[in-house]
Specification:
There is one protein chain. Helix content is about 5%, strand content about 55%. It is mostly beta strands. It has one domain.
C-alpha cells in the first residue's frame, strides 16, 4: 500500500466572457448597398446562461450531490474542493468510485466543456518530473476528449446539448497507474532483543510523500447557432451529426 500525504483536490469553475457565453436568438436584418444589392446581417438577442458541477459526497448508498463549482447567470464563479474518498492509501491499478456530473441550471439549452489539469507537487512546488497521466480519471462515454501534448491538461466536450435542468455524468472513477508503485529503495537491518534477533526491512517508493492536484474548469455556450458560438468561445471548429457534437479541430 502506498501512502500519499495530503492529496490536494481543487475544482474551479471558469467564466468565459465572450459572446459564446450567452444564449443567442438569431435575427436577420437587411441593408441596401449603393448598387442596389442587399446585404444580410446577423444580430444576437442574448439571455444569460449558467452551468455547474456536482459531486456525490455520500458515504453510504444514498446519493448526496453537492455543488462544487459553478458559473451563475450573472457571471459570478465560486468553487470548493472535491471530496475524493478512500485515498489515504492507494493500491496501484485499483479503481476508486468517484461521481462528478455537470448540470445545466439555466433556462436555455447549452453545450458544455470541462477543462481538467492534473499534476504532482513536491512540497508547495510543482514537480514536472512526475508524469501527470499516472492520475487516471475515468470519464463516461458521452464526452469528446482533447489531450494536450504535455498530458497535464485535457479538455472534454459533452456531445449533446443539455436542456434546462438536465444532468450528465462526467467522472465515474479515479485510479493510479502501476508506475506509482515504483520502488526507490529497499533497506534491511537487524537488532537483538531478549528473544533473539529481529530483522526489519523498509521500502521507499518514488511517490512517497508526494501530493497530486486535480483542477477542473467548467463553462458552456449557447446551443443556438452552436457552430459559431463554440468557435467564438472555445477557439475550435466543431463537427456535428444533427445536434450531436462528433469532433473538434
Amino acid at each position: 500500500m502506498i501512502k500519499i500525504k495530503n492529496p490536494l483536490f481543487v475544482l474551479a469553475a471558469g467564466l468565459l466572457l465572450v459572446a459564446g457565453s450567452t444564449f443567442g436568438v438569431v435575427t436577420t436584418t437587411s441593408a441596401q448597398k449603393a448598387d442596389g444589392a442587399k446585404v444580410e446581417g446577423v444580430a444576437f438577442s442574448t439571455a444569460k446562461i449558467s452551468v455547474m458541477l456536482e459531486e456525490n459526497q455520500s458515504t453510504d448508498e444514498t446519493p448526496d450531490f453537492k455543488k462544487v463549482a459553478w458559473m451563475d447567470a450573472e457571471g459570478n464563479t465560486e468553487s470548493s474542493d472535491l471530496k475524493f474518498t478512500n485515498l489515504d492509501h492507494i493500491t496501484p491499478g485499483e479503481t476508486y468510485e468517484e461521481d462528478v456530473r455537470v448540470v445545466n441550471d439555466s433556462d436555455y439549452p447549452e453545450y458544455v466543456r470541462v477543462v481538467v489539469r492534473k499534476y504532482w507537487l513536491k512540497g508547495s512546488d510543482k514537480d514536472s518530473s512526475i508524469d501527470p497521466e499516472i492520475i487516471q480519471l475515468h470519464k463516461t462515454g458521452e464526452w469528446i476528449e482533447q489531450d494536450s501534448t504535455s498530458g497535464e491538461e485535457v479538455i472534454y466536450y459533452y456531445k449533446k446539448p443539455l436542456n434546462k435542468g438536465e444532468k450528465a455524468q462526467f467522472i465515474n472513477g479515479i485510479s493510479f497507474d502501476e508506475a506509482i508503485g515504483k520502488i526507490k529503495e529497499k533497506t534491511a537491518f537487524e537488532y537483538d532483543v531478549p528473544e533473539g534477533k529481529v530483522i526489519e526491512s523498509k521500502t521507499t517508493y518514488e511517490y512517497d510523500g508526494k501530493q497530486f492536484k486535480v483542477e477542473m474548469r467548467v463553462d458552456s455556450v449557447q446551443a443556438s447557432s452552436a457552430d459559431q458560438a463554440i468557435f467564438a468561445a472555445w477557439g475550435v471548429e466543431p463537427e456535428f451529426s444533427g445536434d450531436t457534437l462528433t469532433g473538434v479541430k
